[in-house]
Amino acid sequence: MKEDILNYTQNRELSWLKFNQRVLEEAQDPTVPLLERMKFVAIFTSNLDEFFMIRVGSLFDMAQTDANTVDSRSGMTPREQLDKIFEAVAPLYKERDKTYADIKKQLHPYGVCGLDFKELEQSEKKYVKKYFKEQILPILSPQIVDANHPFPHLLNKALYVTASLRYKDKIKEKTMLGIVPVPEFVSDILYLPGHDIRYIRMEKVLMEYVDIVFGQYEVSDVNYICVTRNADIAPDDEALEVSDDFRYLMKETLHKRRRMAVVRLEVAEKFSPDMEKYFCDKFNIKPNQVFRTKMPMKLDYVFAISGNLPDSMKRSLIYSPFSPQNSAHVQEGSVMKQVKKNDILLFYPYESMNPFLRLIKEASTDPNVLTIKITIYRLAKKARLVEYLCAAAENGKEVTVLIELRARFDEQNNIDWSERMEEAGCRVIYGFEGYKVHSKICLITYRNRNEIQYITQIGTGNYNEKTAALYTDLCLMTGSKTIGKDAAEFFKNMSIGNLNGIYDHLIVSPTSLKQKVLYLMDEEIRKGTSGRIVMKMNSLTDVDFIEKLARASQAGVKVDLIVRGICCILPGVPGYTDNLRVMSVVGRFLEHPRIFSFGTGVEQKIYIGSADMMTRNTEKRVEVACPVLDEIIRRQINHYMRVMLSDNVKARVLQSDGTFCKKDEEKPPIDSQAVFMEEAIHAKRSAPVKEKSIGAWLRAFFKR
């Protein structure tokens, strides 16, 4: 079957670009409020930045070190993949520019105006010039480039105003380049006086007054540029001495990332042929790595504008407010006591993370609690979880924190938190060389009379209080003794550096998770047309899973995949994936749960966990998935999956040619995220009285 796989697979990078185009579609959706649409443009841009830093950067490395390596899902070499990427990205730039311009124009009647200098009123021009001379000019660090002033190092994703310079009294002398870094420690935009939200971007201000900066020169060809550097560097690439402190190694890694090779150059104005050649030579790039954009290269300020809107404008320009609700499954009082009686499932962001945080806070002061152990991958800048863990350590509990310092782009934040927890008396460990610890598991061990008992939490998402209000995720809290014993064994193995632990219920990569999921798929294949597989994840790239899914489809198993991002298997390919359907949901919240369901009825097996079906997750990371044993929670998860599969508003269906299309619009519209928000609000209100079944409420909701 190896030789057949190219018939029903696609390249992962091109698949990801199609996902990001789906994000841009949300920015084009007229039913989405205008500033939220602009946020989707910002998210598309941020996604593309990271894609170039990591994926394109990685392919450049491969092209230099192993140029003949062939991608098993597309048959392309690294250089062929890069060419296809640049070809696919160019039209996305144009689509993004048009989308941004359309939204910007529609925002003007609301008084939200991003302006060019020529659009300013005379009084505003005076204000901007005064601000520039008094606040910006004194802190600028301009430079010319000539024999005595070498070309400077340009920081990753920093903005630079450039211009051609010629001495005013030496007309025949050759021009030179002038470069002005846009200061990173000032606001990206300058708000103009008045009641409306009128602003001009800081790079536009510098472009207008660059002749003041270079006063002795004739200035021409004013532009601004931004380089994107390869950021695909890991500490595993570095020589690691046994005596080295891992935190120090990570700090060195971050420093090195700032000076990596350029993989993309963005420009505001079209280069002349000579200028394009000059910069391509300087950065050792090709012309197809130069992208012109008519919109801002940084859009972070859009989120700040949304936060500063007056209430009268919020109703028109941003989503209706929604706050994570108190779960109807959690009552007032001790969370520990409730989890000891019944398993509890929280569904973020529709339900609040607070019950889990309350659980840790209670454990920090409970005299019967002996230990708290947790794996951490990403944390918020402000984290109550860390406060409670530190309090537990200070209260004499044994607190073990396995924190992953290599969580890409969160390394410094995790370094800072690790130092804080260590100071409070927590035992902090860092995982394994060559393996990231990506699992989301927490174990509370307590004494009940003379018996050791456990409360275990397994999640699909990070312990990040900020993203818990933005990402959809599941959080299972259980008093199961068997799962608790497995969790205790897991943490013991992590502490002694053992990746080959054996567990009764938990499935753990890199040893058992992949093998167990493939075995469960084989069970469904043996059932033939009676088999059923439903899986939800962020990405699917692993060739072993792809081949197994094709076998399941060929055996007649009905397979539904809900894949947010990269999906390398193509559904509906005759003879290979006829019985496979793939859909993706992109909406207000970022879809993030990993759910794996096999079979139906009493024989159904459901697992939730931290792993996507990617080789990096199943073979190069420590991941944990947990069986859902409680029947009520199994029904909850089945309900979530049914609603997701019914979505015909935000869902898109993957076609056999790799494109996405909308579902049948003739059916009543179902926006799964809107349904879940309504359910969370409804459940909160009905909690004090006898609860109406979720299924009955959903039927009533659809009849509205």
Automatic annotation (TrEMBL):
| Example of a GO cellular component annotation carried by this entry | polyphosphate kinase complex
Cofactor(s) this protein requires: Mg(2+)
Please name the top-level EC class of this enzyme.
Answer: transferase
Q: Which keywords are on file for this protein?
A: ATP-binding, Kinase, Magnesium, Metal-binding, Nucleotide-binding, Phosphoprotein, Transferase
Q: Where does ATP bind?
A: N47, Y471, R564, H592
Q: How is it modified after translation?
A: An intermediate of this reaction is the autophosphorylated ppk in which a phosphate is covalently linked to a histidine residue through a N-P bond.
List residues traversing the bilayer.
Answer: none
Q: Where would one find the signal peptide in this protein?
A: none
| Molecular function as annotated in GO | ATP binding; metal ion binding; polyphosphate kinase activity
Spell out the catalytic residues.
Answer: H438 (phosphohistidine intermediate)
Binding positions for Mg(2+) per the UniProt entry: R378, R408
Pfam families (alphabetical):
PP_kinase, PP_kinase_C, PP_kinase_C_1, PP_kinase_N
What's its catalytic activity?
Answer: [phosphate](n) + ATP = [phosphate](n+1) + ADP
The Gene Ontology biological process annotation of the record reads:
polyphosphate biosynthetic process
**What Enzyme Commission number(s) does the record list for this chain?**
2.7.4.1
Q: Could you tell me which InterPro entries the record lists for this protein?
A: PP_kinase, PP_kinase_C_1, PP_kinase_middle, PP_kinase_middle_dom_sf, PPK_C_dom2, PPK_N_dom, PPK_N_dom_sf
By sequence similarity, the record places it as follows: Belongs to the polyphosphate kinase 1 (PPK1) family.
Describe the function of this protein.
Catalyzes the reversible transfer of the terminal phosphate of ATP to form a long-chain polyphosphate (polyP).
* HAMAP family to which the protein is assigned, alphabetical: Polyphosphate_kinase
Protein name, please? Answer: Polyphosphate kinase
Gene source species: Clostridium scindens (strain ATCC 35704 / DSM 5676 / VPI 13733 / 19)
Gene name per UniProt: ppk
